[in-house]
Write a structure and sequence with these properties.
It is built from 11 helices and 13 strands. The chain is of the alpha/beta class. It has a domain at about 1-180 and about 235-265 and about 305-315: Rossmann fold (3-Layer(aba) Sandwich). The strands form 4 sheets. A 7-stranded parallel beta sheet has the order 3-2-1-4-5-6-11, sandwiched between helices. Strands 7-10 form a two-stranded parallel ribbon. It has a two-stranded parallel sheet with strand order 8-13. Strand 5, helix 6 and strand 6 (about 170-175) form a beta-alpha-beta unit. It is globular and about 55 Å long. The model has no long low-confidence stretch (mean pLDDT about 95). It binds nicotinamide-adenine-dinucleotide. Nicotinamide-adenine-dinucleotide binds next to helix 1, strand 2, helix 5 and strand 5.
C-alpha cells in the first residue's frame, strides 16, 4: 500500500518512513528540504534497505500538489508532517507560518476530498492545551488561546480537518505530540536543528559535545519540586510507531469517529534538572549549565495522560528517558565525528 509522508525527510517524518517501510508500506515522500537534506534518504536506506520515492516539492505550490495526486492516484493514506515549527520565528514572521502550515494543509485536503475515501494523519502538538489546569493532560482538557502563531496553526489545522471531515469522505486522526526526542538506535537518522537549538535535548547534546559553552536553564523558580519546568519526553521511534498504528486503524476502518484525537507521550513528566542529571549519567560527562531568567511563553508543566492511546490505539511508549538521551547522544557524536 502506498502512503504519502509530507515532510518525510524531517526529524519525525524520517523515523516514521523507516517504521512504515519496516511494516511493508510503499512510501512516497514530499519535502522541500527547507529544514532537512536529501542525505537523510541515505540513512533511511541504510536502516531499511529500501529507497522511498522522493518528490522534492513545495506544498505551498497548489498546481504541484494537484499534479502530485494525479500522478499518485493510488495513495492509501497521508501522514502530514510538513510545517514550519520554530515558535520564536513564528512570532517574528507570522505570515510564513500561516502560509506554510495552513495553505499546504488546505491544498492537500482539497485533493483528498475528491476521492471516494481518504485517510489523513495530522501532526498536532500539546501546545494546543497551553498550561493545562490538571496533570496529566487528557484529550478532554480545554484548549487555550495559542501563545504563538505556530501554536495557532496547530489549533487551526485541527479545526480545518474537523470541519472538512464532517462533509467529505476524509477520515482523520489528530496526534498531539508531547516532546519528541532521541534518534534512531542505529544513529543513521536523527534531529538536525539549524542554529541554536530551541529544544532542551539538542541543546544538551551540543553542549556535551563542546559546540556550546554552557546550557541555559530558563528559570528555577517555577512551582515544581526542583523549580525547573516539567515536560514529557517521548522517543521519536515510539512516536513514529504510533503513526503506523494510527494509519492502520484508518485503513482497516477501525476508527470510531471521523476524527479521532490521541495524546502521544510517555505519561511521565521530567524536570530540566532531572534531564541534565540523566544525561550526565548516560554520557559520563559533566554538563556545564547556568540558571538564567524564565523564557517568555514557557509553561510550567505538561505531561500526557496516555490512557486513550494505550487502550484505543493499542500503542504505548517503550523507551525510558535514559534510552532516549543515550540515543540522542550517540547521534550527536556521530554527526560531529
Ligand atoms: P522538521 O522540520 O524536522 O520536519 C518538517 C519537514 O517538512 C522538513 O523536512 C521540511 O523541509 C519539510 N517542509 C516544511 N515546509 C514544507 C513545504 N511547504 N513543502 C514541503 N516540505 C516542507 O520537523 P519535525 O520535528 O519532524 O516536526 C514534524 C511535524 O510535527 C511538524 O508539523 C511539527 O509542527 C510537528 N510537531 C513537532 C514537534 C517537535 O518538537 N519536533 C512537537 C509537536 C509537533
Amino acid at each position: 500500500m502506498k502512503v504519502l509522508v509530507t515532510g518525510g525527510l524531517g526529524f519525525i517524518g524520517s523515523h516514521t518512513v523507516v517504521e512504515l517501510q519496516n511494516e511493508g508500506f510503499e512510501v512516497v515522500i514530499i519535502d522541500n528540504l527547507s529544514n532537512s537534506s536529501e542525505e537523510v534518504l541515505k540513512g533511511i536506506v541504510a536502516i531499511t534497505g529500501k529507497t522511498p520515492i522522493f518528490e522534492k516539492m513545495d506544498l505551498r505550490e497548489k498546481p504541484a500538489v494537484q499534479n502530485f495526486f494525479k500522478k499518485h492516484h493510488d495513495i492509501a493514506g497521508v501522514i502530514h508532517f510538513a510545517a514550519s515549527k520554530a515558535v520564536g520565528e513564528s512570532v517574528e514572521n507570522p505570515l510564513l507560518y500561516y502560509e506554510n502550515n495552513i495553505s499546504s494543509l488546505v491544498y492537500i485536503l482539497q485533493e483528498l476530498q475528491q476521492k471516494p475515501e481518504a485517510n489523513f494523519i495530522f501532526s498536532s502538538s500539546c501546545t494546543v492545551y497551553g498550561q493545562a489546569e490538571k496533570m496529566p493532560i487528557t484529550e478532554e482538557a480545554p484548549l487555550q488561546k495559542a501563545l504563538s502563531p505556530y501554536g495557532a496553526t496547530k489549533q487551526m489545522g485541527e479545526d480545518i480537518i474537523t470541519d472538512v471531515a464532517k462533509v467529505t469522505n476524509i477520515n482523520a486522526i489528530l496526534l498531539r505530540y508531547f516532546n519528541p526526542v532521541g534518534a534512531h538506535p542505529s544513529a543513521e537518522i536523527g534531529e538536525l536543528p539549524i542554529g541554536v537549538p530551541q529544544n532542551l535535548i539538542p541543546f544538551i547534546t551540543q553542549t556535551g559535545i563542546g559546540m556550546r559553552a554552557e546550557l541555559a536553564v530558563y528559570g528555577d523558580d517555577y512551582p515544581t519540586p526542583d523549580g525547573t519546568c516539567i515536560r514529557d519526553y517521548i522517543h521519536v521511534v515510539d512516536l513514529a510507531k504510533a503513526h503506523v498504528v494510527a494509519l492502520q486503524r484508518l485503513i482497516n476502518k477501525k476508527n470510531a469517529t471521523k476524527v479521532e484525537i490521541f495524546n502521544l507521550g510517555t505519561g511521565t513528566g521530567s524536570s530540566v534538572l532531572e534531564v541534565i542529571n540523566t544525561f550526565e549519567k548516560v554520557s559520563g560527562k559533566k554538563l556545564p549549565y547556568k540558571i538564567v531568567s524564565r523564557r517568555e511563553g514557557d509553561i510550567t508543566s505538561a505531561y500526557a495522560n496516555t490512557d486513550r492511546a494505550n487502550t484505543v490505539l493499542g500503542w504505548k511508549a517503550q523507551s525510558t528517558l535514559e534510552h532516549s538521551l543515550s540515543s540522542a547522544w550517540k547521534w550527536e557524536q556521530k554527526i560531529r565525528s
